[in-house]
Amino acid sequence: MVIDPARIDSRTRRRQGAFSVIGLTIAVMLGTLAVFTGSVAAQETAAAPAQAVAATPVLKIDTGDTAWVLTSTALVLAMTMPGLALFYGGLVRGKNVLGTIMQSIVILCLVSLLWILVGYSLAFGPDKGGLIGGLEWIGLSGVGSEPHPVYGPTIPHQVFMLFQLMFAAITPALITGAVAERMKFSALLLFAALWSLVIYTPVAHWIWGGGWLGKMGALDFAGGAVVHISSGVSALVCAIVLGKRKGHGADYMAPHNLPFTLLGTGLLWFGWFGFNAGSALGANGLAASTFLATHAAAAAAALVWMGVEWAHRGKPTVLGLASGAVAGLATVTPASGYIGPFSAIIIGVFAGILCYFAVVWKGRMGYDDSLDVVGIHGVGGVFGILATGVFASKAINAAGADGLLFGNAAQLGIQAIMVAAVALFSVIGTWVILKVVDAAVGLRVAPEDESTGLDLSQHNERAYS
Amino acid sequence: MKMIEAIVKPFKLDEVKDALLEMGVQGMTVTEVKGFGRQKGHKETYRGQEYTIEFVPKVKIEVAVTDAQMPRVIETITRAAKTGSIGDGKIFVRDLVAAVRIRTGETGETAL
User: Fold this and answer.
1) Cα(B73)–Cα(A7) distance, rounded to whole angstroms?
2) Of the candidates A415, A416, A54, which has an alpha carbon nearest to the alpha carbon of residue A221?
3) Closest by alpha carbon to B95, among B64, B69, B72?
4) Which of A2, A62, A86, B48 is an S-S bond match for A360, by CB 3.0 to 4.6 Å?
5) For position A61, what pLDDT does the model report?
6) Exposed e or buried b per residue across A290-320, where buried means at least 16 C-beta atoms within 10 angstroms of its C-beta
7) Taking 60 as the threshold, does the pLDDT of residue A376 lie above it?
């Protein structure tokens, strides 16, 4: 083998150049973090204590709290439509962009109605054995403008229900990234409806609706397990059961419109403030600290993903920066209401590194998780839930618990149980649902339709004519 | 008569067109094409997934000229399209057996 020394030399030098820039950046960040970590305990203990949950909360509507949660509800809507729709739409090939956008939007509509009719009652209705909510609130019976003592004592019960509706809607929409460019539209509708009722509502109940994980003390502030682990793990099952896209690994399948993906990233980041800070269920100090943690983690993860990719592949990419931001947002979600800004930065740094390598190593695993739902939401969700058990602090949120770093190692164990339970249930449930849908209508479009693209074959439309 | 096909870098199209007009060529046909010669393609990376793009975008200019014009046309295109780096393109020449101006029915070199 002949090696051109000049070429190797210049490449090595370029690499070294990139490495030294990145090395310096990372060194500065780590140095800063070391100082921060030392002072995390001190600073966060000194932070103003968040409002403690009173033993018997006074049920009185607060206009500020209500306005903020209503606004947050609309912010979370924007995450799905048009945020996620554009994020995913830009990542697929031009012949599938409408089909991909359609999936997020139709799931939003479908799950919204299911939630009003039965989903909310199953998730948040009166507890039945710690496993599921009862049917007492079916069709929103009894869910009116009076506040509920647990679900936000200062906001109308309907506002809480609506806020939760947006979470229920985005979660199955996240999974569509794993089945992109090949799933039959009718199969997708059936899958989303069944998944929402069979997987999402019980998991939400276990953790937030008075179920067994919540009673055990599991901490998931805004949906690391309920939203990201459930969708990320289910996405893995979907990618395996559906099989690879035709031409995967051989054909050119690059994103057809990265500016769309960037618009989507912006809307997701923007909406995530509602998702996380809205989960404080009030316009208060906890909402502010959650907002801060959310933003800090997103910024850190975006920079770290970009830097790791720069060192690993030689160039910083726009898609890498955007993917890092989403990874940071997904990862910090469960911890966001229990941590201070420095813990959030540490979580963001790890999110950027872990999710980057999860996405890059996907290629060796042999499944086609087309838009990286597993690598970003699955891996980020699992790490985020565990990190909550490390970094959570009662000084930030008295209603939460202390994590490992604050002397409570048991919390990490509880978080691990939550990861295992949600992941196992999602794997089995999703597999069964896929088999049912396959038997009923078939999961994949015909090979010819896949070549033509979803836009024309499923919808008789083209995005660009 | 000759048909000259020049494959050039897209950003050089305007310079080639202006140079040809200046030397008296009356018309041309332009097509966006893809291909590769020694330049080969480039690499793209999306979330660690690398693609090698073998076919590079080029512009194909077709000019029908008289036998007498041919050497100057080739010289003009070569001068205008040249950057000196790999991927500048190629010029191919074929014999042209007939030409007709549809509006008037003129044939041969008068139709060019």
Assistant:
1) 38
2) A415
3) B64
4) B48
5) 97
6) bbbbbbbbbbbbbbbbbbbbbbbbeebbebb
7) yes
* Confidence band, pLDDT 50/70/90 cuts, at residue B42: confident
Percent of chain A with pLDDT over 70: 88
- In three-state secondary structure terms, B87 is coil
Give the minimum alpha-carbon distance from B57 to chain A in angstroms, rounded to a whole number. 15
Token pair for A35: 């100082």
Residue type for position A415:
Q
E strands of A117-188, at which residues?
A: 127-128, 132-133
Tell me the C-alpha distance between A218 and A401, whole Å.
9
B47 contacts A360? CB cut-off 8 A: yes
What DSSP assignment string belongs to A310-321? HHHHSS--HHHH
Q: State the residue range of the domain holding B55.
A: 2-111
Using an 8 Å CB-CB cutoff, list chain B residues near A356. 48
Q: Which residues of B touch A372 (CB under 8 A)?
A: 47
Averaged pLDDT for residues A251-276 = 97
Distance to chain B for A373, nearest Cα, Å: 12
Do the Cβ atoms of B47 and A363 come within 8 Å? no
Global pTM exceeds 0.90:
no
Measured in whole angstroms, how far is the alpha carbon of residue B91 from the centre of its chain?
A: 7
The amino acid occupying position A371 is: L
CB spacing of A359 vs B45 below 8 angstroms:
no
Amino acid present at B8: V
- How many independent structural domains does chain B possess? 1
Nearest Cα neighbor of A423 from A464, A378, A360 is A378
Letter string b/e over residues B62-79, b meaning 16 or more CB atoms within 10 A of that residue's CB: ebbbeeebbeebbebbbe
Quick one: A250 exposed, middle or buried, by C-beta within 10 A (0-12, 13-18, 19+)?
exposed
- So what's the ipTM on this one? 0.77
Of B44, B47, B51, the CB nearest to A372: B47
Query: Which candidate from A255, A312, A356 shows the least CB-CB separation from B46?
Result: A255
Closest Cβ opposite residue B45 in set A315, A323, A372: A315
Go through the domains of chain A in sequence order and give each one's CATH number.
56-459 (1.10.3430.10)
Average pLDDT, integer, range A110-118: 98
